[in-house]
Amino acid sequence: MVSPSPAITLLSVAATVSVALYVVKQRAGAKPVAAKEPATTTFSDGKKWDADELIKHRRSIFPQDYDKSRKVSKEILEKILESANWAPTHARTEPWRFIVFSTPEALQRLGQFEADLYKKMVPPHMFMEKKYKKKIEAKLDSSYVIAICMKRQESEKLPEIEEVCATACAVQNLHLSAAGHGVGGYWSSGPPIFSNEMKEFLGLGEKDKCLGLFYVGYPKPGHVAHGARKSIKDKVQWVTK
Q1: For residue 41, what pLDDT is reported?
Q2: Residue limits of the Nitroreductase domain (predicted)?
């Protein structure tokens, strides 16, 4: 007679233990685990939306369209950031980093720095005073401004583009979660933000990057634009051979 292999014996023991634990729980009056519902996100008004619906609900909402009388709570922002943390990441490097400017003083300092940097970088004949002031005002119109940063692997084992893509996925998570909480968001970019000066201002490493600034605030009533996209049929190629 052939003796069972150690692997089979181990599996048999594990199964026996699992059954025993189940019986103990049942006798102790343990409640059965409820079946999971389809993935949904609860909005601040209590409504549940499925994932596809939420994705189509998301909008870029500019800071001038935020309601300055309403401040997004730190608790909600932390939930939004936690959602960002669950983005896909090759080799689990988790390269996304977020620097949150959360007070009027901090927002003013960031706005002034970017405005001065814009004035320094742009040719004199292209400088616009209105744009200069707007870079400051946009920060003060927001509940928070989040610097979107990519922390580069020291080993550089992964191509940089993969780390950038992972960070972008984290921002998409962040934006979707914000929409789910009724919060507006806007991802801003441009030469001053991508500059070495901004990187130094944020305290980033030499190989790290700032990929943008994400503005956060409650939208004013009626200031959420209608979204539109061209047909997906024009953007997909099906390969059958």
Answers
A1: 45
A2: 55-218
